[in-house]
């Protein structure tokens, strides 16, 4: 049952990432970092999906199964803004996207080029 739960969480995460990628495509960003992030998330999902049967076949008791499932889910959500690691920020993906959109909207009305200030 635990491998099914973990794989369902990964599947729901993949659907949410697809929706977020469609939203992020409307914002003028450097696509190279977005591609690196997508590849890293895909490799993480694939490796965890492949590691689940190997981890669970070698366990003896239910406590070990639960501990390994929680460890895999922690590694899976380590880079996500909604995980426990970034819980102190108090932001979810929707609020982060909203703030990012506001920053781009406000910077688009900036009367000077930012490159002139830096160089």
Automatic annotation (TrEMBL):
It comes from the Eukaryota. This is Uncharacterized protein. It comes from Alexandrium catenella.
């Amino acid at each position: 049952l635990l491998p099914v739960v973990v794989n369902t969480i990964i599947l729901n995460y993949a659907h949410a990432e697809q929706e977020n990628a469609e939203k992020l495509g409307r914002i003028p960003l450097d696509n190279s970092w977005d591609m690196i992030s997508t590849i890293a998330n895909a490799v993480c999902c694939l490796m965890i999906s492949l590691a689940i049967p190997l981890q669970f076949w070698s366990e003896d008791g239910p406590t070990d199964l639960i501990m390994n499932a929680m460890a895999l889910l922690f590694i899976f959500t380590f880079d996500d803004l909604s995980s426990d690691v970034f819980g102190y920020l108090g932001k979810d993906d929707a609020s982060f996207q909203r703030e990012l959109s506001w920053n781009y909207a406000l910077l688009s009305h900036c009367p000077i080029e930012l490159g002139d200030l830096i160089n």
